[in-house]
Amino acid sequence: MKTPNKIYLKDYTPPVFVVDQVDLTFEIEKNQTKITSKLKIRKNQTDSDKNISLVFDKGDFKIASVIAGGMVLLPQEYEADDELFKIAKTPDVFELEITSILRPHENTSLEGLYKSGDILCTQCEAQGFRKITPFPDRPDVMAIYSCTIIADKTQYPVLLSNGNLVKSGDLDNNRHFVRWEDPFKKPSYLFALVAGDLDHIEDQFKTRSGKIVDLRIYSEKENIDKCDHAMKSLKQAMEWDEKRFGLEYDLDLYQIVAISDFNAGAMENKGLNVFNSKYVLANPATATDGDFMSIQGVIGHEYFHNWTGNRVTLKNWFQLSLKEGLTVFRDQEFSSDLNSRGVKRISDVRNLRGSQFPEDTGPMTHPVMPDSYIKMDNFYTMTVYEKGAELVRMIHQLAGEKKFRKGIDLYFKKFDGMAVTIEDFVAVMQEAAGLDLEQFKLWYFQSGTPIVTMSRSYNPDLRQLVIIFEQSTLPDRNQDIKKPLHIPVNFGIIDADGKDITPIDNKLLELRSDKETFIFDNIPESCLPSIFRQFSAPVKVKTDLTDGELAFLMANDTDEFSRWDAGQTLFIKEIKQIINGIQAGDELSISPNLINAFKKALTNQTLLDQNGDRAFLAKALSLPLETEIKDHFDLVDVNAIHKARKFLKQGLAGQLKHQFLDLIDLCSKSYPLSISHGAMADRSLKNLCLSYIGCLKEKDTTALILDYYESAQNMTDELAAFKILSQIELDTKQSAVEKFYLKWKHDKLVLDKWFAVQAGSTLSNTLESVKSLTTHPDFSMKNPNKVRSLIYIFAMQNPINFHQKDGSGYRFIADQIISLDEINHQIAARLSSCFNLWKKYDDQRKSLMQKELERILSIQTLSKNVYEIISRALE
Length: 875
Known about the structure:
By secondary structure, this protein is α+β, with helices and mostly antiparallel strands. About 40% of the residues lie in helices and about 20% in strands. The strands form eight sheets. Strands 6-5-9-3-2-12-15-14 form an eight-stranded mixed beta sheet, with no helix packed on it. A five-stranded mixed beta sheet has the order 17-18-19-21-20, covered by helices on one side. Strands 10-11-16-13 form a four-stranded antiparallel beta sheet, with no helix packed on it. Strand 25 (about 450-460) and strand 26 (about 465-470) form a beta hairpin. Helix 21 packs parallel to helix 23 (about 785-795). The radius of gyration is 28 Å and the shape is globular. The chain starts with 6 loop residues before the first strand and ends with a helix.
């Protein structure tokens, strides 16, 4: 294939033509949709060349007519192909009318205008609007939009778009129309349309200024009873944003629509959010506690975008983290304020370490603000979103809550209605908080994960504790030499009795150099430092803490995150020792120190007596996943990691079986249909304990798991037991698989869980099972949720089966990438990332993966999306 061109940040220029108004008409027919766009256009005054041509982005569709300045243009008077629309000469100010013909039922990319089941909908971020009509499809072209939709009243009784409904009525031949107007300027990526036979629930929210906002959540009629939690979450988000940031909703109507076929989680289109149905639909019978929490977080995220992304948007796509990093920070704070802050922080950090840290060491490593791309879709990454949120969090720590809020207020005062940059945001924070953030800005431009090493010494005569920090970042494809970063260290000192004795002026240390020393006076002997509390910076940490000291911090640190982190460090060290034993052929054992520390946590009466802390205990006692363990090795031994983790889990379960059983009994008393924090905490701890005893694969423990599976009264418990049974042995797994399917075959979202459990099984027949499931009547390669549930889970979260030594797992996934690329480029590209770290494996596996990468790259019709991922992996 022809090598695609790169787009570079350094080549950015302002738009040559500005579109001030966009009036769209959609005439929906059975097999096509006719779209007429009427644009009010003017040349940008900053452009000095008066003879420059008008060039718009365009997708693969037919143009029926073009009228410019009131004159009908002949086909030879304009140019149009599958990428661009061009008029050689235009006046400085004029109106342009283009009529296009689309076939949304044939659009499997799920970009632009497409059909999800019987529902017609749009997805325009990042560059999907060009697939609807020719347009300068870039975020710094902001216009006022109006939209008229005409359709059959029976097939499409509900017609939605952005803004406010201003007119509706009936037409001939059982057709009807609506007209929507959005009073706020927006970029094209925020346009939305939905048409279908939908039901809805409705409510209202009264803003702090007294305005009544109508709230509606739409779904297919059979799912309307699963929308209540989403509505509750929306009202919580609206109230929280007013209290925490003083931000009030600006339209009279806020709408959410649940769609089955969607590439991402949701989309923040102004006033009309289109959601993947998995982030809207929930009740205790069909959704897990994790689903309920995800819905709350994603509903909040898209609502918060109304200000951080919509009212203030991006100058160009390189600034994506300006809206996404800031909004992820806001949704994390929202979930933390409404639930357990410590548990939420642990979940977010585990996600960051498990996905973003490997991204930083792989071929797709890039700064939070990338300097180039081939396809923008590929840069909706963990780095832009999650690491971007960590950078905002660091600014928040450096500024403090009051000054950070002052900065947010100034940000909207200065830039409301504008398209701006990350540097604009940082400059406002500098100004409002009185901070020097010049060095801090390196976080946005420099890729990689810094490594911070802590060492210490103690002078008993002077009662002086000396802490030395050193920072370094490895060179990568973006920069050969990495500069030292401005790193905030949330710091504490714990004495021998477990009391926090941190000097009040030293709770936040700031690293700015390669090496820095901090001296603390009047510190008793045997005190321990607690560093990067609440994970105050996205860094890898190395310390000189002994196993005994880590065990002490695991039990006594006053910061929940640090307690959890000490335990995870102990687990990793233990697993490394077991792996060394496996590779040397030695007899394996578990350190008594670890068993004692684990037992102490397992029987911590303070935590067990307080329901709110049981969720934390479930986090503290969870072993790192195999996908997390691999990131602690330069050369990954797949089989040894699998065996070592299994040995450790079975060893702990065997020695502490009675304690686990006692906890299961203790935590089984909550009301099974409650989604209160206490009930969720009980279930999380109970199901973790069940997973420990289930791995013993003994007759009595398996019988107990079966009993819990068959008597479960909510999806959280049912799915947890199903997962455990899927790991025990083939007959047990198959029986559970059949029972689950018979019970839930009518529910699309629950079947996603059914596919995922089978794809994640570590049993030996899993690859053949997954291959077979790709032909199952309930599976579709055209539905991203199904692909993610089956193929992604196998490739991304089942290393022992994906990395089979004969390469059969690699061949299977490469085949899926090639097939998917013909259907949906975005989903194929995201699956391709499973090969990103192929060079970290043994020579045999490395050779087999390289062969598959080269096979994919040899496809002549390969999309730009997949080409960018695969070619960078092979560099």
